[in-house]
Design goal:
23% of the residues lie in helices and 25% in strands. Strand 16 and strand 17 form a beta hairpin. The relative contact order is 0.19. It starts with 10 loop residues before the first strand and ends in an 11-residue tail after the last strand. The chain is built from 9 helices and 19 strands. It has 379 residues and is of the alpha/beta class. The strands form 5 sheets. It has a 10-stranded mixed sheet, sandwiched between helices.
């Protein structure tokens, strides 16, 4: 969670009594060049609050303590806090502005200085500033990923299934280059989806001009809905846990899902050629949408959750099956189309996200929200 770009600008409050006893693992990379233990290169949270921190860690993968890591990343961390009391408060009040300050006296003037971080385009802060490429050794397709704060395990879930990926900045005009790819994927990310108007416009143009398969996760799901003409709504509490039941309305099967979101799609505003795909069995909020006749769908939850649950990981297979069908159809229509990504493209592009500034130095004006494990959020 601490390295997930979706948590950018949020204070994470851990309700587990003891945190840090496993320490922090190394930044080792796997066979795809992706970070093995982290979801991004840096600590994304703007603050960490725990009840009790373990200063001595013990785990075979650990190379430093939680306190050392936070200090290196410039992220404030506080212990000795009744975190469950904070979560209880947030369950009653909903999302609240919050700040970590030094000193014992309350200063009412500081409250007046609070600004709502939901007015900030957090996606702009976490998205790559230039395209980068991740190759698959068994590449059978080439997918364009719109990086709104993509998690490493989303890339791993695609590359591990034989798809090479090229990641683009969140506001890149993807409709202008989609014909070079077999599929388009819209990633997770932080904040209010309505800040990404350029992304929404480019997706609208993409769906108007191409039959390419599209999949979105979390924020990507919301952006897909906005591009279809639907609206999103702000939830009072949001859904943040690893055990939330979501019902597949096409099969009647229930999946246990991992979630982290404060916004949801208003399904009453979906156009007639779209339908609800998944529904949350706790609060009946939307968990997915799907086009009635085209290979386009999105999920609010995270099928790539690491380390689980894995109930819905099959959705990557579903998506890549549609990508394969589209590629074969394009091979018939365009027989000279390249089967694999251009070697020149692979050589020229960076192999990891470009120009993303760490969370260090971000404003300490934060919005606190509720969760089971992670309880404070800014977006």
């Amino acid at each position: 969670s601490l390295t997930d770009p979706s948590y950018r600008g949020q204070i994470l409050v851990f309700t587990q009594p003891l945190i840090g006893n496993y320490g922090i693992p190394s930044a080792a990379r796997d066979e795809h060049g992706l970070l093995r233990h982290f979801e991004s290169p840096n600590l994304q949270a703007a603050g960490v609050v725990v009840a009790d921190v373990a200063e001595q860690y013990s785990h075979w993968t650990a190379v430093k303590s939680l306190g050392e890591w936070c200090a290196e990343e410039g992220v404030p961390a506080v212990s000795g806090v009744d975190t469950r009391a904070i979560v209880t408060h947030l369950r009653e009040q909903g999302s609240s502005l919050a700040r970590i300050t030094i000193g014992e006296e309350y200063d009412a003037d500081q409250d007046e200085a609070f600004t709502d971080p939901e007015q900030i385009n957090l996606v702009q802060k976490v998205s790559t500033k230039a395209p980068f490429h991740v190759s698959s050794a068994t590449s059978s397709s080439h997918v364009a990923v719109i990086d709104c704060g993509v998690k490493e395990n989303i890339l791993r879930s695609l590359v591990g299934r034989g798809a090479s990926v090229t990641c683009f900045p969140y506001d890149y005009p993807i409709h202008k280059v989609a014909h070079h790819f077999d599929g388009v994927f819209i990633s997770n990310g932080p904040g209010d989806p309505t800040h990404c108007q350029d992304t929404v416009y480019h997706l609208q143009r993409l769906m108007e001009t191409s039959q390419i398969p599209i999949m979105g996760i979390c924020l990507g799901h919301q952006l897909l809905a906005l591009a279809s003409g639907a609206r999103t709504i702000k939830l009072k509490y949001g859904n943040r846990a690893h055990n939330i039941p979501a019902l597949d309305l096409t099969t009647g099967r229930c999946h246990i899902t991992s979630q982290n979101h404060g916004y949801a799609v208003d399904t009453s505003t979906l156009p007639s050629d779209w339908k609800e795909y998944f529904v949350n069995l706790n609060d009946s909020s939307n968990e997915g949408i799907i086009h009635k006749s085209r290979p386009i769908f999105g999920t609010q939850f995270h099928p790539e959750a690491r380390g689980g649950p894995l109930d819905s990981s099959y959705l990557f297979d579903t998506y890549l099956e549609s990508v394969g069908r589209y590629k074969r159809s394009q091979g018939v229509l365009r027989p000279m189309r390249e089967e694999r990504p251009s070697p020149l493209l692979v050589d020229l592009l960076a192999k990891e996200r470009v120009g993303v500034v760490p969370t260090t130095g971000m404003e300490n004006l934060l919005r606190m929200g509720n969760a089971g494990e992670e309880a404070a959020r800014a977006a």
